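Why do we care about 3D structure at all? Because function follows from shape, and shape follows, mostly, from sequence. That is the central idea of this module. The next example makes it concrete: a single protein chain, its amino acid sequence, and then its structure expressed as tokens.
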Amino acid sequence: MPRIAGQDLPDHKKVPYALRYIFGVGPKVADDIIKQTKINPDKRANELNSEEINRIQAALDQIMVEGDLRREINDNISRLKRIHAYRGLRHSAGLPVRGQRTRSNARTKRGAKRTIGALTKEAAAKIDATKK
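And the structure:
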């Protein structure tokens, strides 16, 4: 299992797809690295020799990936929070940042739906059953 940029690449996948397991490497960057290093794109990750792994590592050193990229993203978000920008306030509140509607959607950001005020039929039936 080759280890590149602090990430173990899956053995059974072809190199362009295995490189995508590195944070910050998507389809375009993976294809560019394959072309730059002149590695056969049909080769599997476990078939790479040490010289090819070194060429990939050298190509990845030129772009920001893994820890450096994560740190950069977190620094940008904390800067937005610090200067009280609208986007920073949305990050702090745990709400969608890029203008999506929240009245009917945004369940992944806001969490599970909680009924406030009115009771659901099931909850009302439970209360009635305990009163009797």
